[in-house]
Amino acid sequence: MSSHVVFFLVPGVHLLDLAGPAQVFSTAADFGHPYTLSYVAEQPQVTSAQGLPLAAELDWPELGPEDLIVVPGWRALRLAHGPAIGATALRAFRDHHVRGGTVASVCAGADALGRAGLLDGRHCTTHHDVQDELALRHPKATVVRDVLFTTDDRVITSAGIASGIDLALHIVATRHGPAVAAQIARDMVVYARRNGHEPQTSAMLRHRSHLDDTVHRAQDLIDTRFDEALPLPALASAVGVSERTLTRLFSRATGLTPLRYQQTLRLERAEHLISHGTTIDAAARTVGFEDARMLRRLRARTS
């Protein structure tokens, strides 16, 4: 299903707040996940904080529940000194959320969502320099400090600047799976995608902080088929190297053998299933173990 991403631009918008998420969704479209991007403002041209003039549309497109509004941040020492945002735009934010859509912000953009009433009763975050002010301006919100992003009832806020990339990759991972998000991060040379509320725990992304294309291609195969038998000869053949070379490159890049990496993915998925009430035996079968003994041994090693 195609999704429309609308970026709402204000004077003084930070380029990376805008360009980071836009690049993520544009790359997702390149990989066959259809996203249409558009840019709306209250004047036909806005000048970014970095001095680049940006053209924008004045009319809001029709949006459905699968679509997304993103409000990038802007340059201002205080939120109170930020740009005025008219009633039409604030109503567009609210109406889209009421209709089941998702609304997101980067950095100071959280204040725009707050002005629309979308932070009331929800968790949110923003750049660390203005977290206290955001809490004062929107006392019904719960400001979560020192995290990259928060999600609460289709309202997603991120800390600022580069964290907009993390926010966008999170949205992609939620909609299309972590393997797609990892593929996009790799293409963007964003070597590790970070999580919002917690330290990076996803093995699928934690072991991507390297530059070896052969290993990345092997990981792509393992990520999408971790619950299947993947013999080393077949994996090496698929990426065009010998078994010995693949094992050497893989271990040097990730610290794991291909088999251990696959087992790590299986264990992580099994732990998620068990935490949601699945029995150990059922979880073991779901993630590809022939019986639960190997899963129990792996869990014992990490406990």
From TrEMBL:
Keywords: Transcription, Transcription regulation. Residues 216-303 form the HTH araC/xylS-type domain. SUPFAM superfamilies: Class I glutamine amidotransferase-like, Homeodomain-like. It holds the Pfam family HTH_18. It comes from the Bacteria. This is DJ-1/PfpI family protein. The keyword DNA-binding does not apply.
